[in-house]
Structure formats: structure tokens, C-alpha cells
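yo

u said u wanted the structure for the complex thing, so here. seqs first:
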Amino acid sequence: MTRMSPLPKLILRRLAIGVLTLLIVSAIIFWAIELLPGDIATEVLGQSATAETLAAFRDRFGLNDPAPVRYLHWLGGALTGDLGLSMANQRPIAQLLGDRAFNTFILAAYAALIAVPLAVGLGIVAALYRGSWLDRFISSSTLAVISFPEYFVAYILILLFAVHLQWFPSLAAVTPGMGLAQRLYVTFLPALTMVLIVMAHMMRMTRAAIVNLLALPYVEMAHLKGIRRRRVIAVHALPNAVAPIVTVIALNLAYLIVGVVLVEVVFVYPGLGQLLVDSVAKRDITVVQAACLIFAATYILLNLAADIIGIVSNPRLLHPR
Amino acid sequence: MDRLLDIRDLRIEAHAADGWHEIVKGVDLTVARGEIVGLIGESGAGKSTLGLAAMGYVKAGLRIAGGSIRFDGQELVGAPESALRSLRGRRIAYVAQSSAAAFNPAWRLIDQHCEGPVKHGVMPRAQAQDEAVKLYREMRLPDPGQIGFRYPHQVSGGQLQRAMTAMAMACRPDLIIFDEPTTALDVTTQIEVLAAIRDAVRDHDTAAIYITHDLAVVAQMADRVKVLLKGSEVEEAPTREMLARPREDYTRSLWAVREFRPSPRGPIPDEKPILSVENVSASYGALQVLKDVSFSVPRGRTVAVVGESGSGKSTTARVIMGLLAPTRGGVVFEGQPLVAHSRQRPRDLQRRVQMIHQMADTALNPWHRVRDVIGRPLEFFLGLRGKAKEARIHELLAEIELEPAQFIGRLPGELSGGQKQRLCIARALAANPDFIICDEVTSALDQLVAEGILRLLDRLQRDKGLSYLFITHDLATVRSIADEVVVMQKGEVVEQGPKDRMFTPPHHPYTELLLSSVPEMDPDWLTRLLEQRRAGAAGGQAGADARGAAA
Amino acid sequence: MPRHLTLLRTAPLSAKLALALIAVYAVTALFAPWLAPFPESEIVGPKYLPWAAPHWLGTDALGRDVLSRLIHGARNTVGIALATTVLAFLLGAATGLLAATVGGWFDTIASRVVDVLMAIPSLIFALLILTITGTSVIALVLVIAVLDSTRVFRLSRAVAQGILTMDYIEVARMRGEGLGWIVRREVLPNAAAPLIAEFGLRFCFVFLFISALSFLGLGLQPPTADWGSMVRDSAKLISFANFSSWQAATFGLAPLLPAGAIAILTVAVNMVVDWVLHVSSGLRD
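structre next:
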């Protein structure tokens, strides 16, 4: 109690590690271009390109500067929202990405808003009523869903809800001016696919975390003090479950952000993932870099958030000796 | 007699892969109002299960298969959960062995203390809080007004155990179950907790069930003692009667280890000590754990290093074995200084100095069969192969009293605790050592098994002229087997000398504290000790006299 | 080994069923050229034939026999996934066990490299690298093996560290045993169960990962028969599925066949992994 709390120091340390990781990852993404065999300009423009067009291309993409200079330039640009030009069609990447990134995050948020409360709730219920039919149903059905490829789940949903019942469209064709209700309707199937996949993981992990917690001696002690079961769970078990559950959520959100790539392709949804896959096929490296940077940064930030919440919710660190 | 608790023919079963097995086999137990009943037995006796059953509670995977549990006239077997809940914490309370695990880390002590009385509607929060401070004072906790506002990890183990007893008393229950409340504590801490528990229980005229494996502890606490063995009752009698005249052989054997004495000693063959530790200091990182430690081990003798947790006794062993390099000083073996790192020692030196660990469970690789465990050092140090190796393995197994044909192919998982420790001894013997470090080799074992191990070690010493460094916290063991004693505290040697001198006053104050804190069979020991300590400076001398009288 | 046979006999029905399924996949993969009625990538009839003899599962958009392609797909997809997993395992387990046992700077450097590699989602990383290397089987296998070995490294290092705190390791060290003996005889037998279970999980992951890349058109390239790309090729057909006639129904279900083949294998492997973990946790008690 006399010493200062180590909490701010720990959080700062974790933040610093997060920033460092982001920097290293951005460097790796940037240096990928250096690994391209041969000359980039020739690679992109083809063998038939004239010396002038090659020179103009190099000039335009700053390829004549040394790599560290270009990295700093690229990083500075990325931080201010300028992601450079697409190598394939020479349009500004920020423009290409803007709407698509928005679409992707909307879809991920849509899925998360349904999946997180549902999965955590069901996971807790399954843990509390361990061995019940509900628990058995949840654990066997989730094992199956985890094992399925995303597109398998997607096509089954399409077959059922789009082709057979015709309740929802099979293509998630959103347009920029679309209203929210319409958008939610159109993107229901891709969202549901992600909900199913992510929920299975999240439920299993939440259940495991709570089952561990319920076996702890202090939870048993609370029962032996004659405390009501509901209160034991609400007061003694759940507050200590915050850190593990938050970790579970963050891990799954990170997973969701990546899983979105496949789901977007299945439903032909105009998002970042779709663009990334197309650009990989076209080998449009600057666009790939930008998209990878956005995905990686989101992923790193989510993990960072989980760790910090874990630190903050640890009573031993909150109340040092 | 006014029966508060009346358990009749209780049967409890445990679930295993092949169905249900009885672990409490028709036990009766009665507790009168204000009476303290001791439950004693070795591990697997079912004493904790029986204690919890007194609250109508069984752990997950167990079930009550028959019998009745009546508390104050009310049947608990088959009672609805709500009825049991209103009893638990309010009229029957529980004190667990590990208070560090039984307190919720996220809540302050006083919040956890007041939860019971407030939720049971016994008293409002403000009153509960005042009562808590009173109980903390009764339990002789430091700073009783403030200590409740700390979190569990901010309080020491002994204090936490007393806070848990205070919490159990929060609703003024009629009965408290104490489940080995001092087993995890050091002896000097144990005294304070024992005294606090006993006084509080007596002052409030609370009945109690006191569960322990330590007969000397139960002698201080209980009015009546029941001995359990593998889920069945062995015998039951008032404490003094049982201590004076145990009816059953099993009960008598429970304190056999305290009566074990080593075989008579011949003269020391060589005056030069086989090993000496010279001015050793060592640290883990910035933390200094050993300060200028010196002692020596005479050839063919046993030197016991005694101390509480954190005294540096195990670290001393690590330095001798070359697992931790000292920052200053060194170890001399057979007149030659030992290299600090075991890796750089010649193989013959590694062979001559062996060590036996406390936990045979973790000292044996679960995937190595008995043959491999003993065979490897034979091969590694002595180059034995094939038939010669096999023959030697048989000899060694016979030496540790395990039937070779029966045991040679077994995995450690197929051995009992005592058999595992014997196997560890055989592994050390396989190297033909001259010097063996025994690190708490008996402390994880039940008394009877521990005594067998001590006998085996004594016989081996006599037959082979081995020298032992015996590390232990248990003074009863020291008294049985040591020739010389080294007392350590906080990384320093506070006193050393021949056993007879060490157990006769005058002592160093810490040795005195340590010696006087070891519970004795005499039911009046604790009372007398506390009086003496209160009496102050004169206590040291009187304490020793008291011990002489009790022994 | 009779011990393993008794273990197998006590296995729950789900595990037995899963093992049988895995055996069917293995046999199919091994003997694909003999089992398949038609060649892998030859046009053998008109497009989009319904499910009827001799094309039991019809023909695809180019007129290739779907059943034959599924059978060859087992060999290609499962084979490559298995090779990749083995490679990832050799790399990850070797470095992980070594890092835990040796410690020091080797452990520090290896752990930091793995931290950074794991900070990037594998799919994203794989897409980045494949942009540069182009889509070749070798690049695919190497990239995924390296990315996946980070997970194996973490697990084997953690498992080994747990084992290394045991007293029996100290006993071996005090005896003067060398590094090789400690890793092979003391650590490895105890790490086997979690590593086997991890192998199963990693295989599932790699297998789904390669199929996903193929599904995105970035994995195995045509005309090689591969389940992921078969889903991709027939994906559009699903919108025409209707259950009015046998022909229409089988037509629309085309993408579900390879996707189902992938799903069933991963479910089976997961079930076996569950069982292995269950048995090994029981052995410790």
C-alpha cells in the first residue's frame, strides 16, 4: 500500500511493446517489396516498356530513393492517410480503400455485435449447467462448426436461406447510398456466417474459462459460507472472469477481421478482403501492402487491448503489497 | 449428552472410470455443543470428506450413498439446497487448509468477512464490520482496525489463516470445521495460529471438528479424537486417554516415527570431514539467499540442516550439487575444492555425491520404468551393460526391499508414494556414492511410511558407511536420525553442533523458538508454552524443562 | 503393441468412427490413381452431367469426372497439407524444445522472432508473401510451414519448460547427462501427448488454410484437382440448386461435395485429438 502502484508502468510498457511491434510489422510489410525478384518497374510494366516509361514509373513511385528513405516516406504517408498509388491503375490507394475499409468494418462490427453477447452468454450458461443437455449440445455442435471451412458454412446458409427459402439475397451487393436497414438485410447472410464461425470458438473458450474458475477453492468457500448460487457466480466468479473472457473476445475479434476475407469473397461483398485478394492475383503490391497494414494493425491493436484489460483487471496488480 | 451433530453410518462414494467406489465406509461421528473433536488419519483416510459432509456438502464427483447426518435435530442428507444454505456459514462454518486460495483475490478481507452475516440477515453491514474488528483483535491480528481493508495477497500466510478463522466465526456458528488449518504453515507461525484458534473457539463456546494428520497438534486442540484409516474408523477416545493408552496398533504406529532411533555408532573412521561448506554466500539475481554459511559433514555420519521455509537450506544443497554457483566461498569434498558448476565436475565426483529429492513424484520421469531409472546410473557411471546391469538392478531392488521380479517393469505411476521414494534411494545408491543429500525426503510421506524410509536410510548408512546431509524442517526427524545439527535462519547458520548438545539448553534464541514451537504429544504443552512465553525472559529455561518432562 | 490396441478398444465410439474415417481418406489419397474411374484432368464427357453411371457425381464445367477429381483431390490437398504440417512441426518443435532446454540468447532471439511473426495474421502474411513469390506449390508449402511453425514453437517451448522444472531433469543434469539425452529421453516422452494432439490441430489448420487459399484462387493451380479450387469453380452453381428434380438438385449441390469432404476430415481429426488429449490427461493422474 505504501509503494506506488506498478500499474501505469506495466501499461506503458505494454503500449510501448505494441507500438514497437507495429513498427516492425510495418517494416516487414514494406520490405516485402524489396524481395521481388528483378526490377519492379519492369515487372509491372512488362518487358516491352520503353526506357522513358520505366524512368517515369520509377520517378512516380520514388523507386530511385534508397529503401530506408522510401520506408519513412511510406510510413509517414500511411499515418496521415496517404497510402500512395496503386501500381496497377495508378490511382490513389486511399481512394480505393476508403469505402471498402468502411464496408469491412461495418460487416465485422455487425457480426461482433451479435456474436459476442450471444457467445459469452451461452458459454457462461454452458459452464454453469455443465453436463446438461444444453451443455452437451453446445460442445458437440461447436466442435463441428469449428472444423468447417468458412465457405462450407456460407454455402449451406446460401442454400438454405437464399436458394431454398429465398429470405435473403445470396450476394451482399451494398451500394454507397444504401440505408442502414437495407444494408443490414443485404449483409445478413455474410454476417450470420461469421457469427456462427466465431461464436463456436468464443463459446468453447468462455466455457473453459468459467469452468476453471468455478473449480477454484474460493468459489467453493463461498458456497460453504451459505451464499446463494446466483450471488456466488455474480460476485465471486464473474469479476475474476473478466480478464479471461476479454482475452477470448479480443482473440475472436482478431480472428473475425481475418475471416472476413473469405466471407467477402463468397458473398461478393465490396470490402477490403475482396480487394486484397484481387490485388494479390494482380500482384498490385502497393495495394496489397496497404491492405495488409490495415489488417495487421487492427489485429495488433485488438491483442494490445486484450492484454491491457487483463493487466487492469488483475487485483494483485491493482492493489500491490 | 446434548448432541449438536450426529452422523450415523455415513457412506460416501467417489466416481472413477469404472464406477463408484466407497471412500467413507459407514462412519459414525457425534459432536456435543462446545466440544472439539479431532479427526486424525493419513492421506486417503477420508477425514476431509467426512468434515465437509458435516455441512451436508460433498465435493464434485462424490455422492452420499447412505447413512444420516443430523445437525441440531435436522436431517441434512437429502435436505433441500435452501435449507443447507441457511445452515452453512451461519450455524456451521468451514476453515480451509489453504487460506491463500480460499479467499477471493478481488475482494478485501472485511468485505468477504461481512458477506456471510449480511446475506444471512444476522446483522447489518456496519455491525458486522465492528464485529469483524473485534474478532481480528481476538485472533491477535496486527492492526485489527485496518487489516480488514487489505486484499488477501497483501497479508502473510499465518495472518490469512487467522483472518479465515475470524470469518468462520462471523455469524457465531455452533460448529466450525477446521480442515488442516496449520499444515501449510511453518512451525513458529503454527503456534500463533493454533493458540488463536483454540482461544477463540473456547471463548465463544463453539463446537469444532479439527482435522489434521498431526497427532501432537490434535492433542492440543481436541477433547476427543477419532482415528480414521481408509474411510473406516479405527478407534475413538477422549484425547488424554488415547494418548496414554491407544487401543489399536495402528494408532500407536502413528507416532512411531518419533520413537525411531538410529543404530549405535562406531568410531568415526577418519577424522577429516568428507565434505565441508566453507563461507558460502549465494544469491538468486539481486536477492541474497545465503550469507557466509560454513559447516562440515563427518565421514559416516548424518548432519541435519534445519530451518523454516526461506532459511536457505535447500539452496545450500543446490550449491553443493553444483546447480547454483556461490558468489563467495566454496565446497570442499575429500580435501579437494569442488568446481562450482556440476557440468564441469569430473564424472567420478558426480558419481560420489548424490541427492534424493523431497517429491519422489516429480523426481521420477513418469515414462521411465524402474529398470531404466536404476539402470541408467549403472550404465552411465559404472559402465555396466547387459546381464551384469540386470543383476545389479535386482540386487539394488532387494536392498530397498522391493521384490525385483514384481517391480522391475513398472512405471512410477504404478508405485505408491513410499515405493517411489525407495526407488529414488536405489537410483542414488546405483552410483555407489559416498555422500548423499536427502532433501526433505520424508516430509511428503505419511508417518508410517516415513519411518520405513528412515530405517532404510539408517541401515544403508551402517552397511555402506555413507555420509548424509539431511535437510528438513521437521525437528522430530532431526531428533531421530541426526548426529549433528545445523540450524539456519534467513540464509545464515545461527547455531550448530552435536545433536545432544543442540537439544540441551542453553540455546540460541532462534533455536529455542524453533525447538519450543514443535508440538508435543502432551495435551498441556500449548497451554504451558504460552504461559512461559508470556512469562518472558525466564521462559527459555522453563520451556526446556517442560520438554524434558514431556518426552 | 498390445498396449495401444487395448487403448484403442476402450476408445469412445466417436473416436473409433473418426479413426475409421481418417483411414478411408488415407486409403483414398494413397491409391487415388487406382481408385479413380477416370483421369484427373481429362475431359471425359459433356459439361454438367447429372449424377448417374458412369459419372456417379456428374461432370464439371469442362466435362471432367467429378468423382475422379474428388479422389485425386484427396491425394493433392491432403498430401500437401500433411507435408506442410510435418515441415512446420520439424521446424517448430525442434527450435521450441531447443529454446526451452538451452535458454539464453538462442531462446530470446527465437522467441522475439516468433512474437513478431505471430503479430501478423497468418492469412494476411501468406497473401503478402504469395504476391511476391507468385503461386507455386513449393512457395505455398514453405510459407505456410514457416508461419505455422511459430505456433508449434510456442507450444513445444511451453510444454518443455513445464517439464524442465521437474526434479527428474535436475537429477539428470546432476548426473552429468548431455543435452541430447535430456531432450530425447527425459523431455520428449513427456511432451509426446500434447505434441501429437497439436499435430492434429495444426494439420486441420494447415489443411483449411491451403483449401482457403485455393478457394481464393491463390493456392494450388488448375488443372490440378484440389478441393478448395473445386469449391471455387462450382461456387456459382449453388444459386441454381432446387429440389424439384434429381438433376437440378445434384447440379446445385456441386460446391458442397468438396467443401463437405474438407469439413468431414477436419471434424474427424478434431475428434481424435480430443480423445488423445483426454487419454493423456487421464494418464497423468
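DSSP finds 25 helices and 20 strands in chain B. Residues 539-551 of chain B have pLDDT under 50 and may be disordered.
cya
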